[in-house]
Amino acid sequence: MVSALLCGLLLAQATPELRPPDYVKIADRIVASVRATKGERVLIPRDPGYFDELIPLLEARFKKAGAAPTLTDWSPKGQPRSGEPIAQLLETTDIFLWLPFRTTVREVKPAETIAIARWTDQGGTRRQVHFHWDQGSVLPDGLPTTHPAGMDQLLVKALDANLLTMSARQQRAAKVLASGQVRVTTPAGTDIRFEIRDRPFNRQDGVATAARMTSAKVRVDREVELPAGVLRVAPVEETANGVIVVPESRFGTKLVKGLRLEFKDGKVTSMIARDGLAAVQIALQEAGDAALRFREFGLGFNPLLKPLPGSPVLPYFAYGSGMVRMSLGDNEELGGSIRGNGFRRWFFFADATVEAGTKRLVLNGALLP
């Protein structure tokens, strides 16, 4: 029998040429989210030959608002960057746009990643808008897969989610999650508990204004995703106890089946798998201690980010309504205490049940009213 993950990869790779998305609508949504003001400086790294139609639309809209857009290119894959370094351009930047780029053609250099994080952490009105698009097409094991045909149209539609309604639901859920011990279970055997206490929540509700940045508490509050939808938090690490079961996951070139991670006081104390355990052990041990630590809990709220019919690919980092995300690794960006050079490994659960205190938030993947 061919696994669901492999089926997803084969289906995605066999898809026809993608139809162009509605670039005008995309530009309007990005500009509306940012609400750039007169004199603000916008840095737009691009991948020439990809999403080219979007660039002039953004430039025109930002200029109309009185902002000053500057274009630069991401580095060629495996080659030194030419031209003015992003780190230098950031010195005169207020808004940074993460537009889509082809990972086989362009890349973000480690030094650029560090520079962007440092720039963001300076605070003030500095903010990023993340519009990763095809890079957000993932499988339940948290790793990216080929962006399937039809996904662009789905993501354009997801930009229409009612942000006020979604934000209100996120705020209510945050209060419930902070009210007592959280328990996450799945039919496959996941059963883990943890506490949020006073850890800050990150609400991805599509608002990237300068005014919103005045209430930013952690780095990801300044990294606004479009499409919007996830509520994120780093639980108090030592309170995480129980088991996470991942039916299928990719580690290197190996498809691991029946991965079971047991946690005690926030650390992985046991790893079991029906097949491929060695690949898991090698990958996590090479990544260091942070790879064995419970990192994050996320819950999706966007009702329009539903997977395409018949496809296992989860759209835009699985921010869809009722989707649960748990992860291992560095959680500095969320205000947590784990440090590990930015390592993180996500796992997504479409059929989870989430309870907090005396209330149930999600039942078998369905977000409850």
Oligomer: single chain
H and E order: HHEHEEHEEHEHHEEEHEEEEEHEEEEEE
Instruction: Assign a percent range to the helix content.
Output: 10-25%
Average pLDDT for all residues: 93
C-alpha end-to-end distance: 38 Å
Shape: globular
Radius of gyration: 20 Å
- Pick out the low-confidence regions: 8-18
* Secondary structure category: alpha+beta
Q: What percentage of the residues does DSSP assign to strands (E)?
A: 25-35%
For the secondary structure, the number of strands is 20
Largest sheet: 8 strands, antiparallel
Count of alpha and pi helical runs: 9
Structure description:
The chain has helices spanning 4-13, 23-34, 54-64, 86-90, 110-121, 151-158, 163-177, 210-213, 277-287; strands spanning 41-46, 68-73, 75-76, 95-98, 106-107, 127-130, 182-185, 191-194, 201-203, 223-225, 230-233, 241-251, 254-264, 267-272, 294-300, 324-329, 344-349, 353-356, 359-363, 366-367. By secondary structure, it is an alpha+beta fold. The protein folds into 2 domains: 4-158, Rossmann fold, CATH 3.40.50; 163-203 and 229-367, no CATH class. An 8-stranded antiparallel sheet has the order 14-13-12-8-7-18-19-20. It is globular and about 55 Å long. Mean pLDDT is 93; it is low at 8-18.
